[in-house]
Amino acid sequence: MAILGSNVLACKWNVHKCRKCVHVVLYFEAEGDEMPTARTRSHKHFRLNAAKIKRAQKLLHAGTETEAIERALDLVISEHERNRLAAEANERFVKSGVTVKDVYGTLEP
Asked: What pLDDT sits at residue 64?
């Protein structure tokens, strides 16, 4: 996420609340600090829990609800990538045939 002067993000969102329905326009960040184009923009409508959005906004120190949603999505994506890399590393370790010695006698046979 690129910070541009007084703008919070290079990716801008428009959020309009109408009771429990939230209208969100997503702009997915292209490579670098380029402004989003029509191809990277996605117009979506979601029904989201307002209390969860406010809680996420507070926990993520986001200035707006839109920023909170974007940060939450970024966290989910990065967590998935970390899990994928850990699973790949674990698979390589298991396939390597390395044996683990239980020097403290605490591992199950």
From this structure: 93
